[in-house]
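## Example record

The block below lists the input lines for one assembly entry, exactly as stored, with component labels intact.
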Amino acid sequence: MANEKIPYKIYLSEEELPKQWYNVRADMKKKPAPMLNPGTGKPVTFEDLAPVFCDELVKQELNETDPYIDIPEEIQSFYRMYRPAPLVRAYCLEKALGTPAKIYYKFEGNNTSGSHKLNSAIAQAYYAKKQGLKGVTTETGAGQWGTALSMACSYFGLDCRVYMVKVSYEQKPFRREVMRTYGASVTPSPSMTTEIGKKILAEFPDTNGSLGCAISEAVEAATTNEGYRYVLGSVLSQVLLHQSVIGLETMAAMDKYGIKPDVIIGCAGGGSNLGGLISPFMGRKLRGEDDYQFIAVEPASCPSLTRGVYAYDFCDTGKVCPLQKMYTLGSGFMPSPNHAGGLRYHGMSAVLSELYDQGLMEARSAEQTSVFEAAQKFARIEGILPAPESSHAIKVAIDEALKCKETGEEKTILFGLTGTGYFDMYAYAAYNDGTMTDYIPTDEELQRSFETLPKVEG
Amino acid sequence: MANEKIPYKIYLSEEELPKQWYNVRADMKKKPAPMLNPGTGKPVTFEDLAPVFCDELVKQELNETDPYIDIPEEIQSFYRMYRPAPLVRAYCLEKALGTPAKIYYKFEGNNTSGSHKLNSAIAQAYYAKKQGLKGVTTETGAGQWGTALSMACSYFGLDCRVYMVKVSYEQKPFRREVMRTYGASVTPSPSMTTEIGKKILAEFPDTNGSLGCAISEAVEAATTNEGYRYVLGSVLSQVLLHQSVIGLETMAAMDKYGIKPDVIIGCAGGGSNLGGLISPFMGRKLRGEDDYQFIAVEPASCPSLTRGVYAYDFCDTGKVCPLQKMYTLGSGFMPSPNHAGGLRYHGMSAVLSELYDQGLMEARSAEQTSVFEAAQKFARIEGILPAPESSHAIKVAIDEALKCKETGEEKTILFGLTGTGYFDMYAYAAYNDGTMTDYIPTDEELQRSFETLPKVEG
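Predicted structure tokens for the full assembly:
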């Protein structure tokens, strides 16, 4: 179909949907550093992780060699309920910008969770069910992951316990209600339901909570309740594996129409969307089959790639999880309270961190008012109200398209539109009212935060 | 492609999208009664309506003879940004119900307005722009129509002034922010910006507002501001015309796969979705080409078809609009404050009213707790969190499927899933908390409301 007129939206047929996930680690010559057991300081084993995660997911987490892993039929069935996600040609945006660039975005927001998170949630719920577990525990910040997991658990009849960062619990009652509608129990974190929660509340009774703290509570709840395991929506290599369905679909759609992206842009918090989108393209680059420019976009207020250090760090505030080598701001880092745009985790996926460290990927940061400016522009031109997270990628895609306008280059720009902003209207209201502010941590603040790093050679 | 395996979702290609709307009035032997000029009591003319509505839309409103009307290329372009809407085979729901019925739904919620309303909003905005107007005014209740119109106006660079029923303005701040993000001005109604608003506020200072009142304000604002016209999201025949795109796409998708629906179900407030979905099928029935069972589903708390009278009535509280012959509860009817599920207009589209009166369509009413029960079940099984409005159709579709389970009939059931419930979480919370109640108006209440009907022979 090469050179055929490109439609506004490319939907693959169900037969064209991926039947295997792609594991980019298999094509990396230098692999990501192994997770370390925080007690022994040695690389984690299956036995270390199995009390926390489902068995099959531990195997996926530790699997650095198999490039393709079959997607179980039950998960493919679920995917067919909301996938394929469309690959959209942004004709209207191109016209509005007056750019010779061709802009495409992969839109993952057409499902009730409102984001790509469902791709991994259903996989993790499936393996938990297969293992005969009663339920799973997790944390959620903005609520996208918690919503996705509650949908997935409802589908398989699993109990779902969500620890929601307290400030989000209070500010996003609607997200909470969606989770409850899907039968999940939602607890504001820190809570009195766990030892670590009690300890944090004793020390900081007025805390708003944080993702790191909610992770600690969810892990404790999983390991102290019979028949439960912990699941996580980003950062982990297993999550990037599941999210590769984004990139695989995108690549299949582009190949079908003979389109080759020059630049591939994704927003980056823990890395689940970016990793999923770029993995198969990165595989081609690693195998020397093709070349692309990859750009990770993160908030200037939580700049792990652009201003963090590449070191072993704790994944959670309670320091119960394995240590991971990653670009990090230190597990003690807390984004400024004025930060509305998600992507607030202190570290970055080990896979993406290693790719970035090898110079295979670039990173940029964006300030939040400029991100919302791009979001509003996009909404008005392309019709879709984007999630603040996704809007980081929009911002840089527009920047790149405007550069093409200056240089006359007809680049093909691809970005990931991870989700919709329907539950982020407080942040949009602040932007509409002109009360939104930016915040960039000072070097001194980051230096203090780096001091929370553990002393590990890696 | 008949007898091929039916995919979970059928997406037409862009070439297969409708290029003309279908006007069901052309195939009706007995036409809907004409609108009457409230001053003269005579059928309205182009000249009567042109000060209120855009010229081209008046022509469409009065056009009872042309079965097909071309969709302008600019509107087709916009449609391609969010259409085709998928026709979904509810495999999971069928399995969960254990029914031999085959269930399909046309899903109109995959766009930022969250509903089918965008189909007519973009058409009305286009004709306003083409006429060289500065902007349009409208009312909105739950906010779906206002959101759709703000998106459409933003696309064409038109000013958009929305009068939002006061109680919704206060209870749905997020809807309001979406409209503001698209550049619309949103005024709680009744307001001090119009004469009719001032009058209503003087009489009822504590009123929560109503759709009828907001319509009066929007019409006044349109007719007293140079370069403005009024637009309406339901009830009118022009709206049904634009919404026929729903039914045309559905019919094309079904024909492509050799599927014939036996029962077609839609929720009904003013009738925009139901009319759009059934129009082309009704056309076949009217022309004797095929037969279908049509079921309109309305809230038991606002039962215009099932308990109203077929008579000329005012369309708005301020009595400035033309009179329309329709099934109505009387323009003084106010749904109980506990009613959360939308579909709260006192009357029904003249086209649908006439079809119903001729016995070509059935109607049922549903109580709201049973509607939310169906909504929750559907969300958990099919993954999509439905709008309360749409859930009226879900409720009856499930009822019909369960009847098939009893009788063993393998009926093909089609219903319209008009939108998503992301902005209706207060109502879902009430259902989740068990505090939602039902309300059915008594015969005495309806009798009092019928007394607000004008004395017109029709």
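Chain B has two domains: 3-16+83-114+243-450, 20-25+35-70+115-230. DSSP finds 18 helices and 15 strands in chain B.
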